[in-house]
Write a structure and sequence with these properties.
Shape: globular
Oligomer: single chain
Number of domains: 4
Largest sheet: 7 strands, antiparallel
Strand content: 15-25%
Strand order of the largest sheet: 13-10-12-11-15-16-14
CATH topology of the largest domain: Uridine Diphospho-n-acetylenolpyruvylglucosamine Reductase, domain 3
CATH class of the largest domain: Alpha Beta
Number of strands: 16
Radius of gyration: 23 Å
Structural class: alpha+beta
Number of helices: 15
Distance between the termini: 32 Å
Length: about 475
Amino acid sequence: MTDLRLAGLAARLPGLRLLSTPAELEYYGRDWTRRWTPAPLAIALPANIDEVQAIVRWANEERVAIVPSGGRTGLSGGAVAANGELVLSLERMNQVLDFNAVDRTLTVQPGVILQKVHEAAQEHDLIYPVDFAARGSCSIGGNISTNAGGIRVIRYGNTREWIAGLKVVAGNGELLDLNRGLIKNSSGYDFRQLLIGSEGTLGIVVEATLKLAEPPPPSQVMLLALPDMDALMQVFALFRQRLSLQAFEFFTDIALNHVLAHGAQRAIDGDYPYYVVTEFDAADEVAQETALAAFEHAMEQGWVSDGAIAQSESQAAALWRLREGITESLAPHKPYKNDVSVRISAVPAFLHEMQDLLGREYPDIEVVWFGHIGDGNLHINVLRPEGLAEDAFIAQCEHVTKLLAETLHRHGGSISAEHGIGLVKRAYLESTRSAAEIALMRGVRQVFDPNGILNPGKVMTAD
């Protein structure tokens, strides 16, 4: 370890695990974007809160930037370390600390994987309802830092709805104990909610108290094939009116083809332009008959061309794979991603304008889109053609993203629905936030991190 600053950190914390081989620097210095060449100073893996505080204090003294790191499944460059930063990985802080039966809360360290949280809740016949396809690799700390959403936002909301309390190390090394699990707390500003979604720029989450819920009633999963884009919102309105929805997800035929090529099984014969996977309460025969009647009505109206309903848990999992397997099936292509949102009422008009924009600007490029139509969130994946240089591809995508951001601004939408801003979208922040808001955000950042060491350059430029 030749860097004198790192030698000083190692001397201050003899038990701290530090990594610095080229393979380790590459592995921990990037996220799923794969767009930046990782170049961190080193990787620190603290084992407890005291070590996190000591690292942050050292970083302030040495003016070393810190990039907090969880599962690094992010898609916006929020966990990238490309400029000599110290990556502070929280993967060793991965324990479930406490379950409180009266409060129905689970207290965990930030490195706990989401799947482990689900399993811990299930041990007590409860659920932690935030869920998405990366559940087996993403960490709770990362989920909190981006206010992750997922497939059940329509029923349960985003991560912030389920955080009862946070312990956070601020940019000066001070430990903040935020909200302490209280249901009602009107004693001033709620810094807990401010930290959620801040992408590691205000503080480092070192402990979280999560709210748990009763399991939902028995459900059924249905796959629907739709003839056109307008039918999406018509079917959604019908199903939301008649059923108690847990999820309502859509994808295109192009997305389906990628998932099928990746090993999933076709559930409906024939080819259709749009598909929906929906899950809804089906606790008794009345609820099941209501769902069937809704399906038949949609067929009669011409909104649905075909459908399939799961008759077992394995069939339900197979139907869900058609939606949840999309991101994994596209990963080898290293797609350029947009993650956008508009109000549900604005979805129909936005969809048409977006489709026209993508068709015009990407005439010879494959675009795969899908999303959480029930909460207005769309994911757009642009696949680089063979023979097109990566720099030219990124430049074209960024040009289109600028146009997309302008479209979103007209519709009152957001350039980031649930993936965060990170490095990828900071140039488009002004399409979502006013100049006055951004100025206030800079001021808040200065208060929490006076020396600007926490994830600099993410969300906003450092100046």
